[in-house]
Structures are given as C-alpha cells and as structure tokens.
UniProtKB/TrEMBL annotation:
Family: Belongs to the cytochrome P450 family.
Cofactor(s) this protein cannot do without: heme
Annotated keywords: Iron, Metal-binding, Monooxygenase, Oxidoreductase
Residue ranges of coiled coil: none
The protein, known as: Cytochrome p450
Organism: Apiospora saccharicola
Domain of life, per lineage: Eukaryota
Length: 503
C-alpha cells in the first residue's frame, strides 16, 4: 500500500516537473522583458497603454535585431515574444505544426472557453479562394448595397446635422457584408443583422470576464457560471437556429438538382462546397461557427477603418476634394457603375487609404503564432514550445528607416511611389510586404483584405459624392485613437457634422 502511494506521489511529482520544464521559458539568448518603469504593471495598465511598451521595445531591441518580451495578460506563464524583422521569413513560412496562427488566436482570445468560433480551414478557404474569385462579380452589387445603406441609415441633412458616424458605418457595412457572407435569405433579417452586429461585443465581454476571473487551468468552468459567457453560447445557438432552414433549403435544392446553387454566390454556398469536397456532412452548428468567425474577422475592423479614413479626410480637405473629383470622373467614365477596374483606377483614394492605415493601423501586432514545438532560427536563436511570437506592426509603420518623415501625414506618399517605382503592386491598400504587415504575412495573411479594400472604397465613394463632413468644433482635429490591449481603435465616441451636397 505504502509503495503504491509512494509510486503515485512520484508519478505526480514527475509529471509536475515535466510540465514545469515544458512551460518554463528557456531561450538560449537574453530576451529582455519590457515593463512600465514606475512599477505599475497592472492588467488595466496593459489594456490601456501597451502601445508605449511596444514602441519602447521596438526602439530599444527590435531595431537592433534583438527579441524582447512583454507581460501576457491572458496567461502570465507565457510572455508575449516580439521578434525582429530578420525572422519574418522564417515565421511566415513555418509549417502549421511548428508555428500555428489558429492555435495562437484560440489562446489569445480564449475562444474555446468563451464560446467563440474557432478559425476553421473551411472558413479560411471560403475567404481565400471563393470570396476573392467572386469579388469582381460582386462589385456593382456591393456598391448598390452602399447606396441603399446610406439612404436607409443616414438621416436627411440639407443643413449641417450632427451624427455619431460609427454606428451608421457599422450598420451599412454589416448589411453589405452579410449579403456576401450569409446570402439573401438572412441579409435583410433584422434578428440576424442585430445578432452579427452585437456578437463581437458579446464575445469580447465574455473573454474579458474569463480572463479576469479564471486562471488558465480553470477557464473551462466559465461556461457553467458566467452570464457573459452564457450569452455568447446562446447567440451561437440562435445563429444556428436561424441558419437551419436556409441550410436545409440549399441542400434540398442541390439534392433536387434544381441548379439553385448557380444562383447563389455567398459564403454559405462556398462552405457547403468545401465540407462536401472533404466528404463531410455539414450541420447548421458548423455553418453558424464559420459565419460568426467571418463576422468576427470582418465587420468591426473594416467599419473602424472606414471611420479612421473619414477622420483623416476631414483633416485634409484639399485631398478630400481631389478624391471627390477622381471618383466623379471615374463614375462618368464607367456610366455611373462600379467595376473592379473602376475601383483600381481610384489612385488618389488608394494612396490616401494606405497612408491613413499606416498612420493609424489598428492591429499593434501581427503575424502572431503559437510555437507548438521548440523552434530554432537561422542564426541559432531558440524559442521553446508554448511561446507566443509576433511582430510589432504599428512601430514598423512609424519607423523612419522604412517611411521617411513618418509622423507627417502625406496623402500622396504611395501615389508618387506607384508612378516612379514601376512596381505598382508594392503600394495597393491590400498589399502585404516585409515593410507592411498590417494584414499579416505569409499563408495566414488576411484573406479578406481585398474584400475590405473594395467595400471601403465603395462606401467612401458613396459617402463623398453625396455628403460633406466636418468636425463639430472650428479647428478641431481627428480625435486621439484608443487602445484596448493589442488593438488601437479610432475614437468612436465623437460626433461629426454631415450635410448633403447640392449639385
Ligand atoms: C481592415 C480590415 C481588416 C484587417 C486590418 C484585418 C487584419 C487581419 C490580420 C492582421 C490577420 C492575421 C494575419 C497574420 O497573422 O498573418 C487576419 C486574418 C484573417 N482575416 Fe482579416 N482583416 C481585415 C478584414 C477582414 C475581412 C473583411 C475578412 C473576411 C471577409 C477577414 C478575414 C480574415 C480571416 C478568415 C483571417 C484568418 C486567416 C488564416 O487563418 O489563414 N479579415 N486579418
């Protein structure tokens, strides 16, 4: 009996040591930890001021080719490891079983424990392949969606009228986005629209609660006790219930060979295709998970990018006029319609959007990966399994070695480059390169960026040719951005003035 207890204790002890060894960071070179100097390194401080620390780490270490680490408020056992650019190629090309983006996301947002959708292969495939192929055919439909959205959500404003722009932009973008993602059956269903619009906020609330109240090993309990997490699960169930009849009818149409599939060009159809290609039956629960995953990836960050660009346009009235003229000319040339080619010819707008995104990029960090096994880089630098690695995006966009005079907003910074450089591809809004990682890099680079680019242009075109905008106060400038952990948002709490243009 004693021997059995002794063996059990020894086994548990051995398991603890092994676990400790797996989780204990063991870099083979110093990876300095960057913290606030005044000793206040609280969770709240990180949520609000992480930008300062990342900028400090970028300046003190990354620019010199050395990695640094920072507190990980999601899991204190594993700090966030920021890598210098010399490792970008190896990270972006690393296979999934070495450095994983989906696993990173799952860990960072505690998706599994907060009821959030996982990033599935099917949802990535639908975006990367099918959505991007369909985009040229969807341009005019999306433009009409923008016009209808503007008419429906923006109040009549023959004189200067105060509006809160973000909720309006969000509603318009969600309407257009859902037409492409979920298709015609639910794109005008108010319950679906409310659910998808609110889902990101519910999930954020759920993950914040789980983070704040539960240590990593007890997070699985949250779904039984936490109201915020129960709400997320309930919304997911409701999404599946709304999708069930749509899925049934689409599958029935396929079975009856009514050729109805030809009529649909949306993510439901692409997802069904992908599940079937893999020989799998698809359920409403799975489609709901993928639809909510797409909603999460697409809706808020694109609407916030429109808001951010609009703020910059108000701050630069001469550029706004140039862009308005460019849009009008393009529309005349294309008989009032929008094609992909017409969108691509909006070069002033494109250059302005890239500059706005450079100055105010929302993700502070991108190309984020979880090391599933230990990884050794070309120069011998070694990171242990379990580390979360990433690249600092915002400081790169403000690095004077990459962008001369980086704090100056230059609306034509990328327009001129396109003329002189000969390599037009280098400077389109959706382009990713080693100098521009706002949309990530490598295989996992945001597959929705072309869709985001097109809708942002269409929405701005619809707004600028119909309305004038200004800030409420004389001499007022763009409000200061707001930080929430690793994301920086345009401040959406400020009203602006809008007025219909007279022709
Ligand atoms: C301005 C808006 C957007 C920004 C700034 C943005 C940014 C990003 C970033 C930084 C990543 C991670 C890339 C990496 O780590 O290498 C990503 C991934 C992703 N994005 Fe976007 N995104 C935007 C809009 C969209 C839209 C509109 C969609 C869908 C229609 C979308 C779908 C996705 C998906 C599915 C992934 C995961 C890709 C994968 O795992 O392979 N995004 N996005």
């Amino acid at each position: 009996m004693d021997a059995a207890i002794f063996s059990l204790i020894a086994a548990i002890g051995g398991w603890c040591v092994l676990r400790w060894m797996r989780t204990k960071p063991s870099f083979n070179r110093p990876v300095p930890r960057v913290e606030f100097d005044d000793g206040d390194n609280s969770r709240v401080r990180y949520a609000r001021e992480s930008e300062k620390l990342i900028a400090k780490g970028y300046h003190d270490y990354l620019r010199k080719g050395q990695a640094f680490s920072m507190r990980n408020v999601v899991d204190d056992r594993r700090p966030l490891v920021f890598l210098p650019r010399k490792y970008l190629d190896e990270v972006k090309n690393a296979p999934e079983n070495e450095l994983s983006f989906p696993k990173f996301m799952e860990n960072l947002s505690i998706l599994r424990h907060a009821g959030g959708p996982l990033i599935t292969d099917e949802l990535c495939h639908a975006t990367r392949t099918d959505l991007n192929r369909a985009l040229p055919r969807l341009t005019q439909q999306m433009y009409e969606g923008c016009l209808t959205g503007c008419r429906e959500f923006i109040p009549e404003c023959p004189d200067w009228t105060s509006i809160m722009p973000y909720p309006l932009l969000l509603q318009i973008f969600n309407r257009i986005g859902q037409r492409v993602l979920v298709g015609p059956e639910l794109a005008r269903n108010q319950e679906w629209l409310d659910l998808t619009q609110n889902y990101t906020t519910s999930l954020l609330q759920g993950t914040n609660t789980v983070r704040a109240k539960y240590t990593p090993s007890l997070r699985w309990l949250a779904k039984y006790f936490e109201r915020d997490v129960k709400v997320v699960y309930k919304e997911r169930q409701r999404a599946a219930a709304l999708l069930e009849p749509v899925l049934k009818s689409r599958l029935a149409a396929r079975a009856g060979k009514q050729k109805q599939t030809d009529q649909h060009e949306d993510a439901i159809e692409w997802l069904i295709d992908d599940y079937h290609r893999k020989g799998r039956k698809v359920t409403a629960q799975e489609i709901a998970q993928d639809q909510l995953g797409l909603t999460l990836a697409a809706i808020h960050n694109t609407a916030a990018t429109v808001l951010s660009t609009l703020y910059d346009l108000i701050d630069h009235p001469a550029s706004l006029e140039d862009i308005r003229t460019e849009i009008r000319q393009t529309m005349e040339e294309h008989c009032g319609k929008f094609t992909r080619a017409a969108l691509q010819s909006l070069r002033h707008l494109d250059s302005f959007m890239i500059e706005s995104l450079r100055m105010h990029s929302m993700p502070q960090v991108t190309v984020q990966r979880l090391a599933l096994i230990p990884k050794t880089f070309h120069d011998g630098f070694h990171i242990p399994a379990g580390m979360q690695v990433m690249f600092a995006n915002r400081p790169l966009n403000h690095d004077p070695d990459v962008y001369p005079d980086p704090e100056r907003f230059d609306p034509k910074r990328f327009y001129d480059d396109r003329d002189s450089g000969g390599n037009n591809k280098q400077h389109h809004f959706a382009t990713v390169s080693d100098d521009s990682v706002t949309f990530g890099s490598g295989f996992h680079a945001c597959p929705g960026r072309f869709f985001a680019q097109d809708v942002i242009k269409l929405l701005l075109a619809s707004l600028l040719i119909r309305y004038d905008f200004k800030f409420a106060e004389e001499g007022q400038k763009r409000p200061v951005d707001m930080t929430d952990n690793l994301v920086v948002y345009p401040n959406a709490t400020v009203p602006i003035l809008i007025k219909e243009l007279s022709f």
